[in-house]
Structures are given as structure tokens and as C-alpha cells.
Design a protein that fits this description.
Radius of gyration: 20 Å
Strand order of the largest sheet: 8-9-10-11-12-13-14
Order of helices and strands: EEEHEEHEEHHHHEEHHHEEHEHEHEH
Largest sheet: 7 strands, mixed
Distance between the termini: 37 Å
Shape: globular
Helix content: 25-40%
Strand content: 15-25%
């Protein structure tokens, strides 16, 4: 049995292609995120064509960790390319059994965030909301992208969140939700959890109270501070390797380190927020706003994947130093996409 993880060059985003082979059966392939603009045409589609060898490449699962442009754009391009092939009567170049995707509406179904603000409601309808700048504007755009991906999946008859037990990919109120992906391969969902989703509503209330006369400011404050951080799908992948313990991979999206620790403890997968895994996909491209040295001391790994190209200053020097300090005198490997190591990274880790 063998699990292989390809961290594709995704510019400033994430794009992971997982391959699981067992007992001479056909490989089980899972795509996590699709990177930002240009990643699909320049990297992901080319890799799909290399792997498929003239036949449709079977993807068991495509997952969007959360609605940010650097994660979702390449997947929209993939689904639109499949639609183009279908419209032209061509054989599909890949098949997708299910899409795991928590759209903004699904996360907030029936909740105050979608019904009490004209600005947020307008974004859900695809109308560009005026008065939003910076990260808030980017998240609004990602809300629309999430709708586009959902609509494309429906047109292609790709089931959304199949196997996730309920319409939302989330952790249960208590215990662990384990999803069997294939023989010997399972996902345990750590987040988002129901209390984290409730916290989104609380954050929305705070945003309203801080900007009572300005709906645009309410939405900007809310979207800036909470949505990607609290809504990222976080899963622990376990792959049997025959004898011994399974290979464990922690996939984090852009979730905050504190939320990951809470989820590990609440689910019982890591008492006190402590766990050791074979591979950790470091959250939020190594941003120093999403992790701490304490996180790296509690969540340890033999191998770390950090996807980023230096845009926005990430991976951040502080993050690399915290990881180095937390793992001092312990063997581990770090894999960085789009970096060649000639810009002082070696000195950071050796320091």
C-alpha cells in the first residue's frame, strides 16, 4: 500500500493531488483545492493529461477547503473545462465522483448572516457590493466563485458533499465523523464544527453592533475577520499501509491554529490538541497570523508541506522560525512549493 502526495505549483494558493494505491487496484485519486488563476491551465490540466494516458482520469473526490480565490479558482476552471468538453460532444478527460464544497449559503443556511444584511445578501446573488475593500472584497468575490462552482457541479451532475452524512461537510457535535473514501482510506472531519459555525453568527452580531448605520462596513468587518478562518474544512486522512499504523495526513486549509487545536481536542483525535502525523499541510501557506510556536509543539509531523510563492510575505519568516524552534533536534522534512531554498530559508531552519 502506498500514499503519494503531490503539492503542485499553485502560485500563492493550494493544489494537492493525492494518490492511494492498494493491492494492485486502480489508484484512488483525490484533488484538494485548485490554486489561483493560471494554475489550472499551466499546471493542473497538464498533470491530469500526464496521468490519464488517453482515458478519463477518475477522481474519487474533489474538495474545496474553503472559498478563497487561491484555493477555488483552479477548480472552477476544471469544471468549466469539463463543461466545454461535454458541450462539444467530447469524451471527458476526467470524471469526478463527488465534490466536497461548503458554499457560503450552505454554511449560513437559515442563519442571521444571510438575511439581515442587504450587502451580504447581494453578494450571494452575485451582485458586487459597493463599499468593500481589501480582503472583504476578495471574500465577496470568492462567495460568487463558490456559487459558480456549485452551479457547474450541478450542471455536470457531480454530487455535492456525497458521503459527508449531511449536506454540510462538518464535524459532529460530539465524537468523530469518519468517512470511508475507499478500502483502506478514510477521512475524519475535524472542522468546521457546529460551535465554530455558531461563532460565525456571534461575529456577525458584533460586526453589526460596531457599524450600526453602515451595512457595507458590517459586511467588510465580518468577512475580513472570520469566514476563511472558521469555515475551512479540516480533515485527518488515514491510509492503511498494510502492517502497522496507518499513514496520517492533516489537511488544514486556511484554518486558524487555535481552531485546529480545539477540534483535535473536541473530537478526541488529539487530546489537549496534541497529535503526531506523518504529514502536516501547514495552514494558510505559513502565515504568521494562523499559527504559533505552541501549535507546532502540539501538532508535530515527520513532513511539512507549505504551499506559497512568497506573495503577501508568506510563508512568513516567523512561521519558519517557530517550526524550527518547536522541532529542534528532531528529524523532519519541509517541502515548500515555488521556492528553491536560495533566499535564506536554510539559515532560518538552521538558526
Amino acid at each position: 500500500n502506498m500514499l503519494t502526495i503531490e503539492a503542485l505549483q499553485a502560485n500563492d494558493g493550494d493544489c494537492l493531488l493525492l494518490h492511494y494505491e492498494r493491492d494492485n487496484a486502480a489508484p484512488v485519486r483525490i484533488l484538494i483545492d485548485g490554486g489561483s488563476r493560471g494554475v489550472y491551465s499551466n499546471v493542473l490540466r497538464r498533470r491530469i493529461d500526464e496521468l490519464r494516458r488517453g482515458e478519463a482520469l477518475a477522481l474519487r473526490l474533489v474538495m474545496v477547503s474553503h472559498i478563497d480565490a487561491d484555493h477555488i479558482t483552479g477548480l472552477i476552471d476544471l469544471f468549466h473545462d469539463l463543461e466545454r468538453a461535454q458541450e462539444n460532444g467530447e469524451d471527458p478527460f476526467c470524471t469526478i465522483r463527488t465534490l466536497w464544497h461548503n458554499s457560503f449559503e450552505r454554511i449560513h443556511q437559515g442563519k442571521a448572516a444571510t438575511v439581515q444584511s442587504a450587502v451580504v445578501s447581494a453578494t450571494l446573488g452575485g451582485v458586487v457590493a459597493s463599499g468593500l475593500e481589501g480582503k472583504a472584497a476578495a471574500v465577496v468575490a470568492s462567495v460568487r466563485q463558490g456559487n459558480q462552482l456549485r452551479d457547474a457541479a450541478e450542471r455536470l451532475a457531480v454530487p455535492i458533499n456525497e458521503g459527508a452524512i449531511d449536506p454540510l461537510v462538518r464535524a459532529p457535535d460530539a465524537g468523530v465523523r469518519r468517512i470511508r473514501i475507499a478500502p483502506g482510506l478514510q477521512f475524519s472531519i475535524l472542522g468546521p464544527r457546529e460551535d465554530q459555525l455558531r461563532r460565525l453568527d456571534e461575529e456577525w452580531r458584533k460586526s453589526k453592533e460596531s457599524n450600526p448605520a453602515n451595512p457595507a462596513a458590517q459586511a467588510a468587518d465580518y468577512l475580513n475577520r472570520t469566514v476563511p478562518n472558521l469555515s475551512s474544512i479540516v480533515v485527518l486522512l488515514e491510509a492503511s499501509r498494510g502492517q502497522g499504523a496507518p499513514v496520517r495526513v492533516l489537511l488544514t486549509g486556511d484554518a486558524g491554529g487555535d481552531h485546529i487545536l480545539e477540534s483535535l481536542d473536541a473530537t478526541g483525535l488529539g487530546a489537549g490538541g496534541r497529535i503526531h502525523v506523518d504529514v502536516l499541510k501547514v495552514q494558510h501557506h505559513g502565515s504568521n497570523h494562523s499559527t504559533t510556536q505552541d501549535f507546532f509543539e502540539r501538532v508535530t509531523a515527520d513532513r511539512y508541506i507549505i504551499s506559497g510563492n512568497g506573495k503577501h510575505g508568506i510563508p512568513h519568516e516567523d512561521t519558519l522560525k517557530w517550526l524550527s524552534a518547536a522541532r529542534r533536534n528532531k528529524p523532519y522534512d519541509v517541502y515548500l512549493t515555488n521556492r528553491d531554498g536560495d533566499d535564506g530559508l536554510k539559515e532560518m531552519f538552521d538558526g
